[in-house]
Hints:
Oligomer: single chain
Amino acid sequence: MTIKAILFDKDGTLIDVNRTWIPLYRDLLSREFSVSHDEADLLLAKAGYDKASDSFMAGSVLAGGTTRQLVGIWWPHLDDTQCAAKAYHIDHHYAPLAREYLKPLMELAPVFQALRDLGLRLGVATNDSAFSATGQMQKLQVDHYFETIIGADTVEVPKPSGQMIAHFAQLVGLHPSEIAMVGDNIHDLEEAKNGGAGLGIGVLTGNAKLHHIEDVADHVFDSIAELPAFFRAQ
């Protein structure tokens, strides 16, 4: 079946995950725990930060998890209700700060425009919150390219459940097999598979290396910049 829409992961696919989130989380943890830079790094390490490479480890909670999962690591004493409240606080209270640290991987608008010119419908599916992700896309002035921005809190179960693919398919009136999922993480490609997407496309702009994702992806590209030529050739 012909691909008619593309659902993009955000962090590591559109956004430089390390340059954006490492300084942001250091700032957040310093404020929330009143700790030093080094103590914040110890807390980051619990969720998948590798100080030697100054990056998030592929497959870690920091690389592809949700705010709720991070809260569970950093505030393990909280019950479910308190965990949800803390996650909401982080997603909403720190959203303006996140936009200050935001670093796109490239100039995104030309890529999205080229894909739209091919008749493809676009969306974002991230394990960040919908509120945070929408604000970031607005900050980069690319939100108008998307039919919707799906967050971990948009669906009952976030990636890699397949529910984001199903949600997007229903919203745009397409069959899941007409959708390509693009992401840098194994979770994104498992989302494609579990949701019945027509293609799972990996990119190497996040923390996963080729060997982490090549067995799950239908195609792997260096970045999303290669997508217009790929879909033009189809």
